């Protein structure tokens, strides 16, 4: 298990975090889970509003970096600027159950979340583990306040279920974050001398957290590796130099990673079962800072742990059986078998994932696990069966994984080994595949898709909200304004509703120089009008000099609202032309033509004065 903590100081994410996560090394192959705790992520009002709709940039970065290494986002929780993410290899997902999150605010007396703690707890192979990311009060003299806030977090955070209701009730607790403990007594000159001389051990005994571990009852049992790396706070941003500002903060090990193993209980536990005694052991393999990251006044800290369980649950709750390859749509049959005691739900579904997917709802397609005889299969331990429709299958070649998502536990209860899909690619199928691929990329950009209480895996609820309006030609000074005459018409963009609309289409008023800029010349327009007269594939434009016929291939015709699918409720005019025609109608007693259709009469621009509306 790799644990990372970093106070990012409201900075934007760096381009590369592979060294921070110890990727591209031999260690990565052995790492099964990664927990990342961030503090001081930008939480200004405008940024929080955006992050409330879409996943924050830091989470996106870590998912992008870790997914090629087959790490899947198991769970995430955020409290203003404090974020916690837990990743695991995809084949461990069925053994990560009972996932819950919690958060506790301690800033401003418990009303503000700039300080406090966020946690993710889960059962790993049948053992309860809790990850706790904290940001405690700053400054040297606030040591007692830090103790009180930590005690408050431990007291306030409670989880549901028959076991491990409190944080310290878990078999294993990882506590990390910007804990803000400082170095007492020693002046800044001696601290910097010890750092430069690499005699860090002379600073350990004055470290507030080391002192507190032996004096505070709330910290009894917490362990930490030796601090063989320089203090991680405070640096000038963009450098590896300690604070050179007027405040000249004393360097300190504010960013820490600790762990605690639950002591074995005595006697018999609930239900007559002997408690787990010596069920796990923890060894710290690495504990270091990363000086190469300079975007913050803190340096990130990482630790790698080897956790050994005396026993583990190694049979998934749902076993999925599938062919080694799908080369025809009729082969897309999925058979699955549920274990005794599995809590089946009618909201369970089976997702089809590309190898390298980022989180449980980053699927290509899905099918509801609603077999007609599902209950009988569960009771008699028989295999149920579902089938993916041909439309839901990706076209082309690729490696995929099937996962059974349990709505009851909000987690994946069973996965398959990677298998091949080789379906013929057609033009229509290719575009469908591309769109489904883009959907899966958009799905992970919202927080909705990460919400554990979301029942439906429908991608329609998880995409970014995008405008369906067609792209307009980039004419300068183009304005869109509603026509009062056309208010109340249908807003449906469907072809059926457009066919039923009256043919009085809005006018596009363009100056002569604008037409010339787009290569539309009078002679060409005249020739186009003669060759296409009587055809529906040309448009007329009312100008001061009369009607002009425009080829459907010209930029002007492509800007026609009829071709674009715009509704008659929109009027497209140039600002200067609109103002000029309004003045002209006042002086001459005419108002501009409202029609733009091949069937418009040539004299529509010369309406009599008495026909004007006041």
From TrEMBL:
Low complexity bias spans: 429-439, 490-503
Domain Inositol polyphosphate-related phosphatase, first and last residues per copy: 1-314
Main location: cytoplasm
Catalytic activities: a 1,2-diacyl-sn-glycero-3-phospho-(1D-myo-inositol-4,5-bisphosphate) + H2O = a 1,2-diacyl-sn-glycero-3-phospho-(1D-myo-inositol 4-phosphate) + phosphate; 1D-myo-inositol 1,4,5-trisphosphate + H2O = 1D-myo-inositol 1,4-bisphosphate + phosphate; 1D-myo-inositol 1,3,4,5-tetrakisphosphate + H2O = 1D-myo-inositol 1,3,4-trisphosphate + phosphate
Keywords: Cytoplasm, Hydrolase, Methylation, Phosphoprotein, Repeat, SH3-binding
InterPro entries according to UniProt: Endo/exonu/phosph_ase_sf, IP5, IPPc, SKICH
Renumbered residue ranges of the record's region Disordered: 422-507, 582-614
GO biological process: phosphatidylinositol dephosphorylation
Enzyme Commission code: 3.1.3.36, 3.1.3.56
GO molecular function: inositol-polyphosphate 5-phosphatase activity; phosphatidylinositol-3,4,5-trisphosphate 5-phosphatase activity; phosphatidylinositol-4,5-bisphosphate 5-phosphatase activity; SH3 domain binding
Subcellular location(s) per record: Cytoplasm
Top-level enzyme category: hydrolase
GO cellular component annotations of the record: cytoplasm; plasma membrane; ruffle
Family annotation (Gene3D superfamilies): 2.60.40.2840, Endonuclease/exonuclease/phosphatase
Membership in a protein family: Belongs to the inositol 1,4,5-trisphosphate 5-phosphatase type II family.
Function: Inositol 5-phosphatase, which converts inositol 1,4,5-trisphosphate to inositol 1,4-bisphosphate. Also converts phosphatidylinositol 4,5-bisphosphate to phosphatidylinositol 4-phosphate and inositol 1,3,4,5-tetrakisphosphate to inositol 1,3,4-trisphosphate in vitro. May be involved in modulation of the function of inositol and phosphatidylinositol polyphosphate-binding proteins that are present at membranes ruffles.
PANTHER family: INOSITOL 5-PHOSPHATASE, PHOSPHATIDYLINOSITOL 4,5-BISPHOSPHATE 5-PHOSPHATASE A
Protein name, per record: Phosphatidylinositol 4,5-bisphosphate 5-phosphatase A
Annotated source species: Struthidea cinerea
């Amino acid at each position: 298990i790799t644990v990372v903590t970093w106070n990012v100081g409201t900075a934007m994410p760096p381009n590369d975090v592979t060294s921070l996560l110890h990727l591209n090394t031999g260690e990565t192959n052995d790492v099964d889970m990664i927990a990342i705790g961030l503090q001081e992520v930008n939480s200004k009002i405008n940024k929080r509003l955006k992050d409330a709709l879409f996943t924050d940039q830091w989470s996106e970065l870590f998912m992008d970096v870790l997914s090629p290494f087959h790490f899947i986002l198991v769970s995430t929780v955020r409290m203003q600027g404090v974020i916690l993410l837990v990743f695991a290899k995809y084949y461990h997902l069925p053994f990560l159950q009972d996932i819950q999150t919690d958060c506790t605010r301690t800033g401003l007396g418990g009303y503000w979340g700039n300080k406090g703690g966020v946690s993710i707890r889960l059962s790993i192979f049948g053992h309860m583990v809790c990850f706790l990311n904290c940001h405690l009060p700053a400054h040297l003299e606030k040591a007692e306040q830090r103790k009180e806030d930590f005690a408050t977090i431990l007291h306030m955070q409670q989880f549901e279920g028959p076991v491990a209701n409190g944080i310290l009730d878990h078999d294993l607790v990882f506590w990390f974050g910007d804990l803000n403990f400082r170095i007492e007594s020693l002046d800044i000159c001696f601290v910097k001398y010890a750092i430069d001389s690499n005699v860090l051990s002379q600073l350990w005994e004055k470290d507030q957290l080391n002192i507190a571990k032996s004096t505070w009852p709330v910290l009894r049992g917490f362990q930490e590796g030796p601090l063989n790396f320089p203090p991680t706070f405070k640096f000038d941003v963009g450098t590896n130099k300690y604070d050179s500002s007027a405040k000249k903060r004393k360097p300190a090990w504010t960013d820490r990673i600790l762990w605690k193993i639950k002591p074995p209980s005595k006697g018999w536990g609930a239900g007559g079962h002997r408690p787990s005694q010596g069920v796990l052991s923890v060894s710290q393999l690495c504990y270091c800072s990363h000086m190469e990251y300079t975007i913050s006044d803190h340096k990130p800290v990482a630790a790698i742990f080897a956790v050994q369980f005396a026993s583990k649950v190694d049979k998934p709750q749902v076993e999925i059986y599938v062919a080694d390859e799908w080369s025809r749509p009729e082969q897309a049959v999925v058979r699955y078998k549920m274990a005794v005691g599995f809590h089946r739900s009618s909201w369970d579904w089976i997702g089809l994932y590309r190898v390298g997917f980022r989180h449980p709802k980053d699927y290509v397609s899905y099918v509801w696990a609603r077999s007609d005889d599902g209950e009988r299969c569960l009771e008699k331990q028989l295999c149920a069966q579902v089938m993916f429709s041909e439309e839901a299958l990706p076209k082309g070649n690729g490696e995929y994984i099937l996962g059974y998502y349990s709505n009851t536990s909000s987690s994946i209860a069973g996965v398959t080994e990677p298998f091949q899909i080789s379906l013929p690619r057609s033009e229509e199928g290719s575009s469908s595949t591309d769109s489904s691929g883009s959907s899966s990329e958009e799905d992970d950009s919202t927080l909705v898709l990460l919400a554990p209480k979301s029942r439906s895996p429908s991608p329609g609820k998880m995409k970014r909200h995008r405008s369906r309006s067609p792209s307009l030609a980039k004419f300068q000074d183009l304005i869109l304004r509603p026509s009062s005459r056309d208010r109340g018409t249908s807003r449906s963009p469907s072809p059926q509703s457009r066919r039923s609309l009256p043919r009085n289409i809005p006018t596009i008023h363009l100056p002569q120089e604008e037409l010339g800029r787009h290569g539309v010349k009078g002679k060409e327009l005249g020739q186009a009008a003669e060759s296409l007269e009587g055809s529906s594939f040309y448009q007329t434009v009312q100008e001061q000099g009369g009607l002009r016929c425009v080829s459907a291939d010209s930029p002007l015709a492509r800007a026609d609202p009829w071709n674009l699918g715009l509704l008659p409720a929109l009027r497209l005019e140039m600002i200067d032309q609109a103002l000029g025609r309004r003045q002209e109608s006042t002086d001459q007693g005419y108002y501009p033509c409202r029609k733009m259709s091949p069937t418009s009469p040539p004299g529509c621009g010369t309406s009599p004065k008495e026909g004007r509306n006041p």
